[in-house]
Amino acid sequence: MAITEINFDGIIGPSHNYAGLSPGNIASANNAGAVSAPRAAALQGIEKMRANLRLGLAQGFFMPLDRPNKDWLDGLSTDMESAEPHIRAAAFSASAMWAANAATVSPAPDAADGRCHLSAANLLTMAHRSHECTGTHAQLQLAFADDRHFAVHPPVPAPYGDEGAANHMRLCAAHGEAGIEVFVYGKGGGPFPARQHIEASKAVARAHKLDPAKTLFIQQAEAAIAGGAFHNDVVAVANENVLFTHELAFEYRQQSYADIRALMPDVQIVEVPAERVTLADAVQSYLFNAQLVTLPQAQGMALIVPTEAEENEAVWTWLNEMVAGNGPIRRLVPVDVRQSMANGGGPACLRLRVVCDPAHVDPRFLADEAKLDAMAAVIAATWPESIAPDQLGDAALIRNVQEARAALLKVCGLEGAL
């Protein structure tokens, strides 16, 4: 097969819960303490992948990480029984489902050595995410083990925070052609931390052997971070030659656009005006945390949006006007990911985009209808139906979570590998 874009979705793990561990993530904070539904959440994720397959898109997945993270607890000289509640919740977190934060990816056409580069994100700004990188790095090394075609890098060292592809965009004429890479970093966000440091972005660009003349570093708007856009992908998304962005996404908006146009004159910037869709509405609906994808057979681009976008009048009105016009985005595809939305992430948060030849990827990480059927059956039979906050230290729940993950690994041929 030719080089193509594969969306690797994070399977929502059996420990999915609402502990409200992510300052700056408004949905996560608002739902802190609610009862979660891990089984429904994971099945929604499976259906999202199934819908992508039916659109003709290539689809992959990543396994949930082992939870609770005993190694991390050991490092803190504690365990689930005796840990303080916030430590217990962090060790139990299923946040690795946000695959957009797993790594930053630069396709082979952009790299000097002609390989696809992936750098695992350190996620060190948030305690519950900071211990993901070891398991994520190991999984990336397994899925992309062919070192003739891939280079998998360890996380950038502390103190520089890196939150992966959620703060990275690529623009190109077509996925298989060389393009420009845009790293979006933060400096301040009022009461919330800026999670992507420019030092980390520059380190990743160097590791990926990118051409400095085709690499940009753009500052995210402080107002956007303060308004709940904890990652750039909450206010902007790119696909091939299209940048779909909110007016308030970047600190230096006009200069950012000019810099992008200087490197890619035929870029199409689709900007949503703040007077039509407020920043608050964009964050609430996760309008930009959508998958902007190129459909096969020259069908143009589609925007895969959460159903919450349909329910926001200002957002849905603007989107329908957009697709009715002559712009590059021609189709809207709503998907139900309410369980993940309630924890602070939409369709784009759940996936990592990797442009490569699928023949070079470990096939155990690639999806088809039959494999999704088998995975859904395991999830329906083993994932907890619900988790309340006071259950996180319960021994029976911990056994259930660990046995459920083991069953999924087995059905995917990954037993003993992760």
Describe this structure as you would to a colleague.
The model has no long low-confidence stretch (mean pLDDT 94). The strands form 5 sheets. A 3-stranded mixed β-sheet has the order 2-1-15, with helices on one face. It is built from 15 helices and 15 strands. It has one domain: L-arginine/glycine Amidinotransferase, Chain A (5-stranded Propeller). It has 418 residues and is an alpha/beta fold. A hairpin with a 6-residue loop joins strand 6 (168-172) and strand 7 (179-185). Helix 14 (369-382) runs antiparallel to helix 15. Helix content is 33%, strand content 19%.
- Shape assignment: globular
Helix content: 25-40%
Largest sheet: 3 strands, mixed
Count of all domains? 1
- Computed structural class: alpha/beta
The CATH superfamily name is Succinylarginine dihydrolase
CATH fold label:
L-arginine/glycine Amidinotransferase, Chain A
Number of distinct helices: 15
SSE topology sketch:
Blueprint: E1 4-10, H1 26-30, H2 38-54, E2 58-62, H3 70-75, H4 85-92, E3 103-106, E4 116-120, H5 127-130, H6 133-143, E5 150-153, E6 168-172, E7 179-185, H7 198-207, E8 215-219, H8 222-226, E9 236-239, E10 242-246, H9 253-263, E11 268-272, H10 279-285, E12 291-294, E13 301-306, H11 307-311, H12 313-324, E14 329-335, H13 338-341, E15 351-356, H14 369-382, H15 395-411
Question: What characteristics describe this protein?
Answer:
single chain; 418 residues; alpha/beta; L-arginine/glycine Amidinotransferase, Chain A; three-stranded mixed β-sheet; 15 helices; 33% helix
